[in-house]
Amino acid sequence: MANEPTILRALPQENFVETTYIKELTERSLAYLDAGYPVHFRGAAGTGKTTLAMHIASKRVRPLIMIHGDDEFTTSDLIGGTYGYTKKTEVDNFISTVLKTSENVKRRWVDSRLTTAVKYGFTLIYDEFTRSRPEANNVLLSVLEEKMLEIPAVSGEGNYVRVDPNFAAIFTSNPEEYAGIHKAQDALRDRMITIDLGYFDKETELRITMTKARVSEQTAERIVNIVREFRETGSYKFNPTVRACIKIGRVLALRNAQASYKDKVFRQTCLDVLTSETFNLGVPINKKSETCKVLDELIKHHAP
User: Fold this and answer.
1) Residue 47 belongs to domain spanning
2) Does some domain include residue 97?
3) Beta bridge mates, 66
4) Closest CA to 192 of 151, 150, 140
5) 252 shares its domain with 295
6) Are residues 153 and 249 in the same domain?
7) Rounded to whole angstroms, how far apart are CA atoms 225 and 231?
8) Are residues 146 and 208 both part of a single domain?
9) Is residue 89 part of a domain?
10) How far apart are the C-alpha atoms of 157 and 106, rounded to whole Å?
């Protein structure tokens, strides 16, 4: 038998960093949702798509349901299906010498997450929705445009469920090409308002690093300066994000190391984190390469 959808309480996130940049994004997104349009955050890994979606959901003060895109999804994974049976037995012994019994057996319909969110006006976060096949996501077209969800008659509710006025949807996706990603159909993207997320501004990266890694402002600033300037050099295949700052900061805090070029732990951590995050897996990094020399100079410059 299928599990009932898990409904979450959209509570404010602990230690969430809300800078001017984040506040502006939040206000824009809430305005689009209030106008009846789903919001789509599109950006590379590490740009805060899911975290921002959760933050905005908490501002709506509505129950939350999450869906994580999956290549194996079918439409029934989103709307529900029939699982198991229910049996009703009636016994008639009104006349003591006569025993009558009748049984009614029918399949049991279980709503899945999309149907539950639509029915009760919950906030839906569909994380990495392009990992699901377009044919599975087609059911969303009528939900977002006509405000109707088509479901099988076997559900016992007719062929359609009307979308509750409080329903809102937030989608996230990663435009980079990697295994398991499908191209979103134009009809679905046309029903969304897409916000492209790039790298955070320096103030946001600084405050996130301080909060998540629990390091001083001076330490966080040195780390952020190194990562941001390394990003601008283009000496990598993949872009280093604020996640690199957090990793470096947490290791320093754990090992009681200093954000200084003189500290071997700091130099080695920066090298390990930034080279592992910015180059293809399986490709050995030559510590004497030009890229590593550039990184070494950045560490020396920003953390003397």
Assistant:
1) 20-80+110-197
2) no
3) 125
4) 140
5) yes
6) no
7) 10
8) no
9) no
10) 15
Both tokens of 170, joined, read 């937030």
Q: State both tokens at 281.
A: 């897996």
Q: Which amino acid is at 175?
A: P
Name the β-bridge partners of 150: 160
Query: Which is more confidently placed, 143 or 101?
Result: 143
**What are the pLDDT digits (tens) for 245-296?**
999 999 999 999 999 999 999 999 999 898 876 665 444 555 567 778 888 9
For residue 88, tell me if it sits in a domain: no
Structure tokens at 277: 């995050």
State which amino acid sits at residue 8: L
Q: Could you tell me the CA-to-CA distances from 66 to 54, 121, 202, 271 in Å, in that order?
A: 10, 14, 30, 36
Which tokens in the block code for residue 39? Answer: 């919001």
Looking at the domain assignment, is residue 34 inside a domain?
yes
Clarify whether residues 36 and 131 are in a common domain: yes
Report d(CA 194, CA 157) in Å as an integer: 33
147: Cα within 13 Å, side-chain hemisphere: 10
Burial class (CB in 10 A: 0-12, 13-18, 19+), 213: buried
Token pair 């989608």 in the structure block, residue:
171
Q: Read off the DSSP letter of residue 131.
A: G
Q: Are residue 260 and residue 186 in the same domain, yes or no?
A: no
Domain match, 36 and 149 both:
yes
Please tell me the distance from the alpha carbon of residue 87 to that of residue 33, in angstroms, as a whole number: 43
